């Protein structure tokens, strides 16, 4: 829903600040502090952020890192899904999360690109069209955030991401390095973490058929069909037809749904509901955006989460403009990024490594949309000098207290690059393996 572009919100909506306890949320939450607000990143575009101060029984927030979490989509909300479904202090029923990341870090959720979650634009032409625009908006937000919250300027700052959020995180991280060097943003940037991230779309798409075939989810005929569509995606990308590549990406997905009885792209051990498979497998006039949005953004705006965010949470925050509905512009966010969607950012990861930025990759074993095979493929394309040593090194098993005799993940590191293979996890690693994800957070942020 786009509000009338002629409407000008009250000035106090631009950068309101609130700091308090958990605002009397149902259930006995921790005694942590929060802050939230808007930043007007352009005349007709405002981005919403929500900060939870770290709440550790043994350390002050000033002794722990600050982590910004970026959700995928594009158009999925970090303040909603990442917060209440994955890593925040409370789950969507407002009960305390057992393995919340606030135990080990302060958490900054940002709804980006503009139009995601509670972020909004009052102009239909103001949605981000590409990564450069996403990055530019985020630089404005981060500059404002660290000016308004100077207590975080000297705390190690990490960017963690998931899915398409990883593509955005890579671009944002590189721009942040440069902004810090120019003294434009005051922070201690310490690293970026790419979780099941859409870094090289083509490598992911080309791996789908062989991966599903190896897992007995495609037969020879199905493999041939899926690979045929993937080949078309490759030809479109090589020709520079990225918009067509996005449509063909969708066609490849639907070929998979037809041949696998509706495998879940976010965890291959589960499947899509039957009605969803029928709905998604009949694309409208060969244009797949409507169904792709349904499969990859709307599913992260579950009815229960929508009710929470547009009800009790909206009432608690008190600053959401009356014309803004959480998730109301997410479809437009997704559609406007269509042409940029299939472009790779492997070169940006290379630039981060060359700039000595700590880069970590983590991936769920059971993910399909960004399967581990595809991730490993783009890693092998890096021009980073440490690549050969990384590939020839031995990985190490990682264990968690609840299962001390069973590896929960495998880990490998070379210089400023590390990779975590997370066992029994799908696309949303913290949701599927919360204990291991929290351990990984502590390792990446050098707490263990």
TrEMBL record:
Principal place of residence: secreted
Protein name: Carboxypeptidase
Enzyme class: hydrolase
UniProt xrefs under InterPro entries: AB_hydrolase_fold, Peptidase_S10, Ser_caboxypep_ser_AS
Function: May be involved in vascular wall and kidney homeostasis.
Gene3D superfamilies to which the protein is assigned, alphabetical: alpha/beta hydrolase (3.40.50.1820)
A GO molecular-function descriptor: serine-type carboxypeptidase activity
GO biological process assignments: proteolysis
UniProt family annotation: Belongs to the peptidase S10 family.
UniProt keyword annotation of Ion transport present: no
Organism expressing this protein natively: Callorhinchus milii (Ghost shark)
Gene Ontology cellular component annotations, sorted alphabetically: extracellular region
